[in-house]
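Sample intake sheet
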Amino acid sequence: MPSAAFPTALRELRARIPGPWRTPLMTLVAAWLVLLVGFASDWGAMARQWWDISTYNHMLLIPPVEVWLVWQRRSQLARLAPAAWWPGLVLVAGAAFVWLLGGVSGLDLARQAGVVALLGACVPLLLGPRVTMALCFPLFYLVFMVPFGEELVKPLQMVTAEITIALTRASGIPAVIEGVFIDTPAGLFKVAEACSGVKFLIAMVAFGILAANVCFVRWGRRLVLLGACVVVPILANGLRAWGTIYAAQQVGIEVAAGFDHIVYGWIFFAVVLGLVIAGAWRFFDRPLEAPMVDLEELARSPVLAKLEAIGRGRSLMAVLALCGLLMGVKAWAWSGDQLAAPLPAQIALPEVPGWHRVDYTPEVWWEPRAQGADHRLLGRYADGKGGTVDVFIALYSGQGEGREAGGFGQGAVMPDSPWAWSEPAAAPQGGHGERLVAHGQLERLAMTWYRNGDLLSGSNARLKLAVIEDQLVLRAQPTLTLILSAEEGEGDRARQRIGHFLEATGDLSLWMDAVAGVR
């Protein structure tokens, strides 16, 4: 009967596990279950990104690759004696702190990196340093479970655009470039986020690191392969974009774009990956029979012997300490997320000397996104000389999940709107500038500043650090986002108009504090 067969199967499985491994392995599995359940929301968010976002689809293969990497080392691992190791709690605490930083700042990347690091940190805690060294590469490779790379999109857009315009002109096609927009006789092309090549690059780096470990022994050859896995996809992506523009001159934009999506999605990556493998094949230097773990080197390592001697412990106590640590960081993150600074019941756009309020009537509607803000203001000021400046203000009582001033999709560039990011732009007083384009012809300059406590900056990273500091010490402070924007083509240039507006406001820090009602 099935009910009787299940215990029998478990006994058979247990009998196949080497004796010294049975209790530590069961303890490790129990600890991992605690992590998966306790941080289910983070694991769920990662899984959705793996499945729903094409940039991360390759990460669905990382768990089976991890199983295969451990399976490669099974015979060497069976000859080791795992044991709980108390200093591993330091690594667990470090991973938990990374998760806490993400939890209190609303930075999903840090939260997800933290839960993946916790998974790996359990290995030295419950199996000891010698087993950890035997599993060094599989543990390192866990990093490719973390959905990262969005921060590379805009730089890669600019690099792809530069490669594309160089090839376009070299092929005899007259073209003009403005940021990520390339104007040709066949029409206007945009190197969009999806065309940046970031998913291609991340997948190639993941493959390259795996191949470097499995197929090579010499570090020089490993580094050459990794270099190729970075350079080749960037150059190949520029070549692909040029190919689309070149084909469009012959058959039209719609036919060329449709063909590009099919080729890039199904054929191009496979061809380039195949070329890299073919180029590296003859240099593979790891013998087929060579073990993945050098047990003799592990056995004679004096460092590992000293580490083992200073921290042996009991598995049950290690798991209890792990649970206590996780409960502590969870409670800390929850307390920080509940922080809310007092705000005025309402705020208003102030008077600005030399400027007056006019109706907000942009040629193409522009309204920055500020999800979770307690107050939002959007208005237009005129200088009496035919020029205007648009002002957007968002005031937050606190920062956290669903209310992140610098979060993904927040700010001047509105997703799913006619406005598209074109290129970065300089901004005064540490602000963050960017140029936007609508319908390929209407340009807008936007400059962003964040105000939190004494911080005035356009840097999202600096804002995150300030918010982390506030929440770690459980200090409630409001956050204000200010975006000044102007359309090109009316009166003075947009940069000049924004500069005159800033001069009229005086000290920008004091002006923003006055708007927020905190001074």
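Comment: The radius of gyration is 28 Å. Residues 219-251 form the longest helix (33 residues).
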